[in-house]
């Protein structure tokens, strides 16, 4: 398993949110977490993204407990995992700088120093201008023509696509996407879903939190159903949606569960 959560439990002051959650993702696989609002999808993604340790259970990278690694080693693992939040949070600068920024903060200190020296000395790369990975990431989301536009002037859908490109440009092995298309129109949704499929084809593992079951059906290899703070069922979408093992999944899919 490349990245896995094993028996994770976690809560906040108001009480437990996740209890005994296990989920994993492999290279080239898309796993969706479906569940009603407030059930803990974001909390699970943040734990997988190593933003903070779980109260109990482990997050493993290639079978090593990430919270038992040295800080340097854990930082190395975190660079392999990139998360796109529900809010794109772009800053007041051209699109290109927003995407490049994501890449820079992910670089090791020595690479950053080298990049600064290169920029200062005006080497070939600096003269050529834009990093080709940044352009490629923007091409994947169909926004290569917006490189120079201020990110704050983009539409909501475009901003979400730039946030996706920023994550891709860090060259991660795993992408964690929190409701990547909520509030987007069908056209922008299709672009993001195609970018997810493309990432998968290139061997990235993708974990998507969504409350949109149709989306889960379209994009996933496996679906995990998160209800009442735990994954009650995992399987291929056709199994989970058409012949679930757990009656609560059937009720959730049928819209019979009230939250
Ligand atoms: N930092 C925090 N401090 C306190 N409570 C939190 C914190 N983060 C999440 N929670 C609570 O944990 C619960 C799960 O939240 P979470 O955002 O993980 O759910 P979700 O399934 O992603 O919801 P949505 O689909 O609405 O985004 C909620 O009750 C939320 O209020």
UniProtKB/TrEMBL annotation:
GO MF terms, alphabetically ordered: ATP binding; ATP hydrolysis activity; phosphate transmembrane transporter activity
Gene3D superfamilies: P-loop containing nucleotide triphosphate hydrolases
Classification via Pfam families: ABC_tran
One record GO biological process: phosphate ion transmembrane transport
ABC transporter domain sequence ranges: 3-253
SMART domains tied to this protein: AAA
Superkingdom of the source species: Archaea
SUPFAM superfamilies hit by this protein: P-loop containing nucleoside triphosphate hydrolases (SSF52540)
Keywords on record: ATP-binding, Cell membrane, Membrane, Nucleotide-binding, Transport
Matches recorded under InterPro entries: AAA+_ATPase (IPR003593), ABC_transporter-like_ATP-bd (IPR003439), ABC_transporter-like_CS (IPR017871), P-loop_NTPase (IPR027417), PstB-like (IPR005670)
GO cellular component, one term: membrane
Protein name: Amino acid ABC transporter ATP-binding protein
Organism: Haladaptatus pallidirubidus
């Amino acid at each position: 398993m490349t990245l896995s959560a094993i028996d994770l439990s976690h809560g906040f002051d108001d009480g437990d949110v996740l209890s005994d959650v296990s989920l994993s993702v492999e290279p080239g696989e898309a796993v969706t977490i479906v569940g009603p609002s407030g059930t803990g999808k974001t909390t699970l993604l943040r734990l997988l993204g190593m933003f903070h340790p779980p109260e109990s259970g482990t997050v493993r990278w290639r079978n090593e407990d990430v919270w038992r690694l040295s800080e340097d080693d854990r930082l190395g693992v975190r660079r392999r995992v990139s998360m796109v939040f529900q809010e794109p949070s772009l800053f007041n600068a051209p699109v290109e700088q927003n995407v490049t920024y994501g890449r820079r903060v992910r670089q090791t200190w020595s690479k950053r120093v080298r990049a600064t020296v290169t920029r200062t000395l005006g080497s070939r790369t600096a003269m050529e201008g834009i990093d080709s990975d940044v352009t490629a990431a923007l091409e994947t989301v169909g926004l290569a023509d917006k490189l120079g536009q201020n990110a704050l002037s983009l539409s909501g859908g475009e901003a979400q696509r730039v946030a996706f490109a920023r994550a891709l440009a860090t060259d991660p092995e795993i992408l964690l996407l929190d409701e990547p298309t909520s509030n987007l129109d069908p056209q922008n949704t299709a672009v993001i879903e195609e970018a997810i499929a493309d990432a998968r084809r290139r061997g990235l593992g993708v974990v998507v939190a969504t409350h949109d079951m149709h989306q889960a059906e379209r994009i996933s290899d496996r679906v995990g159903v998160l209800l009442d703070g735990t994954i009650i069922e995992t399987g291929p979408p056709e199994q989970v949606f058409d012949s679930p093992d757990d009656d609560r999944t059937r009720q959730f899919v049928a819209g019979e569960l009230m939250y």
